[in-house]
Amino acid sequence: MVAVAREDDSPVDEPLRVAALADRLGYREVWAGEGPTWDAFVLAAALARVTERAALTAGPVPVSVRDPLTIARGAASVAAVTGRAVGVALGTSSKRVVEGVHGRPRTRPATVLTETAAAVRDLLHGAPGEPIVPGSTFRRRLPPPGGPLTVAAFGDRAIAAAAAHADRMLLDLVSPQQVRDLRAKLLTAAEKAGRTPPTLAAWLPAAVDPDPASLAQMLGSIAGYLTVPGYADVFVEAGFGEAVELAASGADRATLVRALPAEAAATVGLVGDAGTVRARIYAYAEAGLDEIALVPATAGDPAGERTLTALRPG
Known about the structure:
The protein is built from 13 helices and 9 strands. It is an alpha/beta fold. It has one domain: Luciferase-like domain (TIM Barrel, Alpha-Beta Barrel). The protein is globular.
């Protein structure tokens, strides 16, 4: 799989080029991310115009800024106009995005995620002719979107929400050891919920034979995680404590990128020559990861062509 539209300094239409290339190379699914730049459902519909076969997933959508019907309706609308199966991913996002960009309160995020996941799951499977929501006189007119429900999770309560309601749980920027630990938590939570464990996937930044621009782009993505509980500990243990301290002091992204050594990108991503990256993919699989959504570096490698070609499905 390939994920597009991580928030960075790449051209705003870069996701379209990445998706078109991924589809031509045989990647089976493209994720349309959501952030301050792109609406995930609009981007997913646009991606369908430049691809032919790939399934589509929109999100993760921040649950604090959209109600369950809006989310399910968005997925069904994209499926209706594209003729593709469309999945939807949910997440709590961050205070910086929810409050700083949307101007909405990010209160009780784990509870809102759990409630939204339960409601969206029901809404995604409703048939035409049924009430659009229980008790409503409005009837469903669009078929179900046909794709999976994904919940992005890291903390225990979010993992419990994924285990109870999702078809797939999503991780982001994780090491193989984190995958191992989080999969164990997922299995325990699914057993407690009485469900088959969801598929476990991760968005991983990727760059095969990266040049300095590609590495800087990847380090810029990592910089945003240096103050996130759990992630900060991983980077400290990996020897990048100075950058973590700088982030905690409020340093800007450019300062953090300069403070992070190139090796930091390989801690939570796929970096190196093709053989090294494939070995790293195997390490993630051994740790319990079922699916990888590549987030290719595009700086110095337009559309991520070098990386996506080297790692194309065999």
